[in-house]
Design a protein that fits this description.
The complex is a heterodimer. Chain A is an alpha+beta fold. Chain A is 37% helix and 20% strand. In chain A, helix 5 crosses helix 6 and helix 14 crosses helix 15. Helices cover 38% and strands 20% of the residues of chain B. Classes of the chains: A alpha+beta, B alpha/beta. At the A-B interface, strand 1, helix 1, strand 2, helix 2 and helix 13 of A face helix 1, strand 2, helix 2, helix 4 and strand 4 of B. Chain A: InterPro entries: AllG-like, OXTCase_su_AllG_h-dom.
Chain lengths: 460, 480
């Protein structure tokens, strides 16, 4: 065999002893040094087994290839009871499965609100008794092709974005965004919250459904790609994407419902995060396409229920690997402070799972103060995520990084090797049920979610 | 302002909400401040401020609202001053968004994405080497694994994958390689030339190439394969690949294959491969037959039709005429022997595994310790880099001590400087010291300066390890 190594100038990557690297420098051999550090404690054996798995390289290629090639299109808006496999008396929630007893304040608040909204209880105390009695079954959104921001509570009467992956044929759902402040997803359940949900079910949902029937499906892949170039990272900043969506849908909304068009457009326009839920369903559709590739160590879901942070891995089916949800390090609204914050909550980490949000921080200089203060920190945050991901997205690009694709497809083996945990941007919910949003910031997932998934992969 | 509240609306002042939340936090963290809220006066924020008990005047979303409550008037004054400083800082914040400094990659995998490499050199602790090496192989790069203590099943797996990708795995426990003129690991500065080495033994390759260099003959490449490559379990995978590669290399006119005797089935495979090559091969399997590394170098020179020189030595100054280069193999039992004060035990303290084995075979006797062996390097640098453990053993030694000193890139910058005090100390106690000095004139440590320093301290110094071992054995009288 001919060995390319023997021809031409040697160029060397060095990992390890600096004395060997310096020896090459003294010989003026072109070199790139690896800033190597030991892996997360206790992962050495599992890492060796997972890396040695002959299926791994190809399996990850397939899994990330599916995520990258997904073509999510917003195709409809429909009531949850029509589209979700949602047995009567069942509510969905964000994150890994959890029961009422362990549920955090904002999740309880949202469940209470949903029970009142569905007419299962006349008021909050009755709803709380009902939920505590176990009369309402709870299940993870992720088990039903669904994602929900923050508490992520979905009940049968709520209207959902329906996103179809035109490449792989999958469908994913996410509720409609209620706006900011006192809203159900942040655990608020006052009269104004229920009132708004009713309006969303009676007016917003049907109008959007009718508008989409006129406009035809909206290409979310291209909209996300454009929004990234307009300064969104699609998790904590959705201003550009929301604007694009309004622009796309406005004529059809006017055509479909001239009587309601103004209030619908005013509502969407008044909420910079309106796009987030459509973007989350887009992420879910792509991540679900990447599921169930035997041997793949790629993360297909990261989600929090306010108590646990959980992940799912392509090669490990529907198993959850969890650790305690951390309290975000963030900036607070009004007079709220860290003492008011609930631990991390929501399925919106599907954005980071798909290479957006914290992973695309460098695209969003307007909100860099979340990650430490300046643009360099944002570039560093995105830069570090290339270390733990399998690929760069061909369509989702960051202009400030020379149109480099966003880091996509988290590999639990790379997380263990580098000790770099996913950078997650998030909203912060109030700890006490009924409070609503108190801030926004950054949060680190618990390392054990990744190391326990790695250990399970080693045994798979 | 009511009591210790500061409420202010700055009309038409805009800052982004995140900057303002940050500013609010900075104020709120100050001693004495109970609540601090600096935000655009949206309906939501005005509502929050009123909920917190502030008397907020009429304001709109394009105005900036400041609401601070402190427990004393002075705390409030200081908070207000801090607020002004913070606003000034925000105004200054239009500083250039210079791109973050290029971060070093954290894995070999990441490095292959941004750097067009021909080779990876892995020297992380052995239990972690597999991941880095596999990154290289999966990226289509050859890899040299300097690390030792790598499990053999990982070695086999790496070499299987490398075979599929058409790349070479050198190692694990590969101490030296020279590729395209670059010395990797412990590497002597060798002149370019026609000899290509395939080495299952790092210091074995260094000995042969240093002797060849002294003889004026250079190398094309030195491809290490790792000490276990010729075992039954690994099956000579890298040896066979390296032989093929050198056979196809136009710069290589002669191949020297150096190592320890292979497992029988591997030996047959290697013999068959060698027989099929167009390039002539000199095989030097230490312990398999009478030859040593020095005779291997001599055979290589003969195969090239080049003369074999006298191998240099630097005799002990106490006996200026003793170690003439041509005299060392001649038993000389009646010589006055200041090297040999009566003690007869031969103690070999080696850094190079193959040099140690060779000396043991040549001397045919006594206690040898290989300080480069896995059990001595777990969690510690190789003795060619960190001489501490071997120096301690040297200071304890009596009788005749035989050591190797290996020069070249990555080896200690001045090994003689560390050895001289210990050599003088044991010499003063009557211990004889013999040194095999493996290096070239172009090595950074300067072969001749090292030899002189060691000789002045009272050691006898040889370029040929076999000659050094024979000399040491003679001093103990064990070979006479």
């Amino acid at each position: 065999m001919t060995l390319p190594l023997l021809d031409g100038e040697p160029r060397v990557i060095t990992a390890g002893a600096s004395v060997l690297a310096e020896a090459l420098d003294r010989q003026a051999v072109p070199r790139l040094g690896v800033d190597w550090r030991p892996p997360l404690p206790g992962t050495v054996e599992a890492l060796a087994r997972v890396l040695a798995d002959p299926r791994r390289a190809r399996a990850n290629e397939i899994a990330v290839g599916r995520m990258l090639s997904a073509r999510p299109r917003l195709s409809g808006v429909r009531p949850a009871r029509e589209v979700l496999d949602l047995p009567p008396g069942t509510f969905l929630h964000a994150g890994p499965p959890i029961e009422w007893e362990r549920a955090s304040g904002p999740l309880r608040g949202a469940l209470i609100g949903a029970a009142v909204f569905e007419g299962l209880a006349a008021d909050a105390p009755e709803a709380e008794r009902l939920l505590a009695s176990g009369a309402v079954a709870l299940d993870s959104c992720h088990h039903h092709r669904t994602v929900g921001p923050m508490a992520g509570v979905v009940s049968p009467s709520m209207w959902m974005f329906e996103v179809v992956d035109a490449e792989h044929g999958g469908t994913a759902y996410c509720s409609l965004n209620e706006g900011l402040g006192k809203v159900l997803r942040y655990g608020a359940y006052g009269a104004e919250v229920i009132e708004r949900l009713r309006w969303m079910g009676e007016v917003l949902g049907p109008v959007l459904a009718a508008a989409l029937a006129i406009s035809g499906p909206v290409d979310l892949r291209s909209m996300i790609a454009q929004a990234l170039q307009m300064g969104d990272e699609l998790h904590n900043r959705n201003r550009a994407a929301t604007s694009l969506l309004v622009r796309e849908l406005a004529p059809a909304i006017v055509d479909a419902a001239p009587r309601h068009a103004a209030e619908v457009l005013r509502f969407i326009n008044g909420n910079d995060h309106f796009f987030l839920n459509a973007g989350m369903a887009a992420g879910k559709a792509g991540a679900d396409a990447a599921r169930d590739v035997p041997g793949s160590s790629m993360v297909v879901a990261m989600a929090r229920n306010g108590t646990d942070f959980g992940i799912q891995v392509s090669g490990l089916g529907d198993r959850w690997f969890t650790g305690p949800a951390g309290v975000p390090d963030g900036l607070y609204l009004g007079a709220f402070g860290p003492d008011d914050a609930n631990p991390d909550i929501g399925d919106s980490t599907i954005t980071e799972t798909s290479g957006l949000g914290g992973f695309a921080m460098a695209a969003a200089p307007a909100i860099v103060r979340f990650v430490g203060g300046d643009v360099a920190d944002a570039v560093a945050a995105t830069g570090s995520m290339y270390e733990i991901t399998l690929a760069e997205h061909p369509a989702y690009q960051i202009p400030g990084l020379g149109f480099r694709g966003t880091p996509t497809g988290i590999d639990v083996a790379l997380v263990a090797r580098t000790g770099s945990l996913p950078v997650v941007n998030t909203g912060i919910a109030g700890r006490v049920a009924g409070t609503g949003q108190v801030g926004a910031g950054l949060v680190s997932p618990p390392a054990e979610a990744f190391t326990s998934a790695l250990a399970a992969l080693a045994d798979s | 302002m009511t009591g210790t509240d500061l409420v202010e609306v700055r009309a038409g002042v805009y800052h982004d909400s995140v900057s303002l939340m940050r500013l609010s936090r900075a104020l709120g963290d100050r001693p004495g401040v109970e609540v601090a809220m600096v935000a655009m006066a949206t309906a939501l924020n005005v509502g929050l401020a009123r909920d917190a008990g502030f008397a907020v005047p009429q304001a709109g979303p394009s105005d900036l609202l400041v609401a601070v409550r402190a427990d004393t008037a002075s705390a409030l004054r200081e908070a207000a001053a801090e607020l002004d400083r913070q606003f000034a800082a925000l105004a200054m914040a239009g500083r250039s968004a210079a791109t973050a400094a290029e971060r070093a990659p954290r894995t070999t995998r990441a490095a292959t994405r941004t750097f067009e490499a021909t080779l990876a050199l892995v020297s992380v602790p052995g239990e972690h080497a597999f991941a880095e090496a596999l990154d290289a192989v999966e990226a289509g790069l050859s890899v040299m694994i300097f690390s030792d203590n790598v499990p053999v099943e990982q070695e086999v797996l790496l070499k299987e994958r490398a075979g599929e990708r058409g790349v070479l795995v050198m190692g694990p426990d590969c101490g030296t390689a020279v590729v395209g003129g670059a010395g990797l690991g412990f590497a002597n500065v060798l002149r370019p030339g026609p000899v290509g080495l395939v080495a299952a033994s790092g210091t074995g390759a260094q000995q042969i190439t240093c002797l060849l260099d002294h003889a004026g003959t250079g190398v094309s490449h030195v491809l290490g394969v790792g000490g276990r490559d010729l075992s039954a379990q690994v099956g000579g995978r890298s040896t066979l690949a390296a032989l093929d590669a050198l056979d196809a290399d136009p710069a290589t006119e002669l191949i020297v294959l150096v190592g320890k005797p292979p497992a029988p089935e591997v030996a047959a495979r290697v013999r068959a491969a060698v027989a099929g090559l167009a390039t002539p091969v000199v095989t030097a399997m230490l312990g398999d037959g009478p030859g040593d590394l020095t005779t291997a170098a001599e055979r290589a020179l003969a195969a090239l039709g080049r003369p074999v020189p006298d191998w240099p030595s630097w005799p002990n100054p106490d006996r200026p005429n003793r170690d003439r280069p041509d005299a060392e193999d001649r038993p000389d039992t009646d010589r006055p022997d200041t090297d040999r004060p009566g003690a007869v035990g031969l103690c070999g303290l080696y850094a190079g595994g193959t040099l140690c084995e060779e000396a043991r075979l040549v001397a045919g006797t006594d206690t040898f310790t290989d300080f480069g062996a896995d059990e001595y390097t777990l969690g510690r640098a190789h003795p060619m880099i960190d001489p501490t453990v071997r120096l301690a053993a040297l200071r304890q030694a009596s009788g005749v001590v035989l050591l190797d000193v290996v020069l070249g890139h990555a080896a200690e910058p001045d090994p003689a400087a560390a050895l001289v005090p210990a050599v003088e100390e044991v010499r003063a106690r009557g211990t004889a010291v013999v040194v095999a000095l493996v290096g070239t004139a172009a090595d950074p440590q300067d072969l001749h300066r090292q030899a002189e320093a060691l000789r002045s301290a009272g050691a006898s110094v040889f370029l040929s390890n076999a000659a050094a071992a024979r000399h040491a054995a003679r001093l103990t009288g064990s070979d006479s």
